[in-house]
Design brief:
Elements (H helix, E strand, L loop, with lengths): L14 H4 L10 H21 L7 H12 L24 H18 L4 H18 L6 H15 L16 H16 L4 H7 L3
Helix pairs in contact: 2-3, 4-5, 5-6, 7-8
Length: about 200
């Protein structure tokens, strides 16, 4: 006999996953995913209405808070521990974020503003913000939305992130995305560059 938590997406949340969780009624990963998706949709709408510079520490923090503020108490605040997903200590995050913003501004200002150049700067911005891993959770989702808002600011369409692919292959796309980020860690941006504009 199957139990509810045996169904895909109904895996109960463990203690680590519920630390800092605001809504008390969420008990499964499927419920958490849906709640976060609604929160993120509101943040996306907010972000597209803003005229603020995306390349700003306060804006990026507010974006994360808007994306996860109805879900997590710590939303919008930098991580307070080291993570295996980042080579950087948590104490380095504020400086790394300032450097990322300064460097991205400088790259854009020095660029030709051609579409390929702007996309390349955005790809590298995305990779670096995810690598810094500034937030306890939600770094990939925050990085993708921040990158799309940055492209919009620069007059470019948002990246597709291969979302036009068959939804049944979502796990394959996620695996490719993670692999592309790892390749970029090693200095090879070709896979990430191809994925972000794939239909």
């Amino acid at each position: 006999m199957k139990h509810l938590h045996d169904e895909p997406g109904n895996t109960p949340l463990d203690e680590d996953e519920t630390e800092g969780l605001i809504p008390p009624h969420l008990t499964s990963r499927a419920e958490l995913n849906q709640w976060e998706a609604n929160n993120i949709a509101s943040a996306h709408e907010w972000g597209t209405r803003q005229r603020s510079d995306v390349l700003d520490v306060a804006f990026l923090g507010e974006l994360h808070r808007r994306m996860f503020g109805m879900t997590w108490k710590w939303a919008g605040g930098y991580r307070k521990s080291d993570k295996s997903l980042s080579p950087h200590r948590w104490t380095q995050v504020p400086e790394l974020m300032r450097n990322l913003i300064d460097n991205t501004h400088a790259q854009y200002d020095a660029s030709s503003k051609a579409s390929a150049d702007v996309d390349e700067i955005a790809v590298r911005f995305h990779h670096e913000i995810v690598r810094i891993h500034p937030w306890p959770k939600g770094n990939g989702r925050h990085g993708r939305l921040a990158t799309d808002l940055l492209l919009r600011q620069w007059g470019r369409p948002p990246f597709t992130w291969a979302q036009g692919a068959d939804p049944a292959r979502a796990s394959d796309v996620r695996a490719r995305y993670i692999h592309a980020l790892r390749q970029a860690d090693a200095g090879d941006f070709s896979e990430l560059r191809a994925l972000v504009r794939e239909e």
